[in-house]
Design brief:
Helices cover 79% and strands 0% of the residues. It is built from 25 helices and no strands.
Length: 470
Amino acid sequence: MSVLSQIGCSVVVCYMCLSMGLMYAWPSCTLKLFSSNNTTLNRPMTETELALFGSLSSIGALIGTPLSGFLLDAFGRKYSCILFSLPQVISWSIVTVSTNVELILAAMFLSGIGGCALLIVPVYVSEICQESIRGMMTSGAMIFYGIGLLLSYLLGGCLEYNMMNYVCLSMAVVGVLALWPLWETPIHLLKKGMEKDAAKAIAFYRRLKETSKEVNQEINNMKRALNPELDDLTPEEEKLKPEMKTVKKMSKWRFIKKSRSSRRALLVALTLYLLAVFQGLVVVQVYAEPLFAEALPNISPTVSSVLLAVITVVAGCIAAYLIDVVGRRPVMIYASLLAGICCIALGSQIHVQWGPHWVTGVCMYLFCITYTFGAGTVPYVLGAEVFLPEIKSLASMVCSQTAWASNFIILFIFNPLVLAIGLGPVFYFFAVFCFSSAVFCFFCLPETMGLPVDVIQTLFAPKKKIQSVC
């Protein structure tokens, strides 16, 4: 019952990513319509406006992500989720009532502010789930994002333009309302000194009595994780010697500056996010229909896009299972290697047409599967579990900010890059980042499966230093 309760609550939180996916895949369904003379808007979009249409959401996320990093601690996880679900509601409201090109672009920008869901949701879910299912549930953020893409492709292919907008608006409203019955995360309440409320939150998510032994034990575990009060020693030394007396608590930036393990964890997470974005699946998702129209001219782009989203969701579910059974590190290494091979095969097929058209589709779908297994799941799980509670919101914000900046760059330059060198060679470019991810993870990524955060930090601490204080 306890696990089922955590899964149910995680699904409600992850729905926020589904709402985000609906809007983020919307350009794929409407790009051709908005550029044609038969557009539903007041005028056809120009080439520059079409490029902005697909990438403005990333600019919005660059603004929303730093704000969410602050509000996660100021407002809490629950109310941050509610607050940043509202941009999707407002964006769909604008799209529903307006035909003005500028307002449609403004709606895409505004929806991007809610893109910090990929920061907030993993943090929220990781703090309400026990270690045995933490990785699986945290990866739900990307699974539900994939479901949002799938629904967007399906609705775009099956419904009339205005009807789709009404349906998506209704779904966004449902997402906001569903968050209200949830409790704040126990560890955030404990950070605020609200121990009784933290115990109630644990009892709510674990379906236990507030005074039970299990609740008291979890409270004590959280207190240990929240006790890195530092003196002249590094935080990892303080963790290994809890008997040392505590001093005035440090600011987040000073904590990162002083803690070598936190700096290394941040560097590893940042690199993973950066490499993951430049592996290129975000381009395939946002520009799915035009990509499939060029790569598979004999098959309906809508059918190809829907199949892509279905494969992404299924692969995400399998990845969620694998990372809690096989481990984060091996999954990321082997998936990145396979994704690189798929990129080379896909790029060469598009470039020189060494096989029939169906080979292009197979390669694209295999790339989607291998990417989702590794770069589409692992960085988001790691970003939610490798940082101590004191700096989790700040460090996660920096990682998400890096990812969104990279998203904007790759989406904005994609069309000009295709015009300059062709679609096939672009996938060679993606392959380089796939292989780089595998090499980086082999040498720099420790295994974190099933470990509490204080133990994870010791994996990033300098080995000699650990030996000297043991």
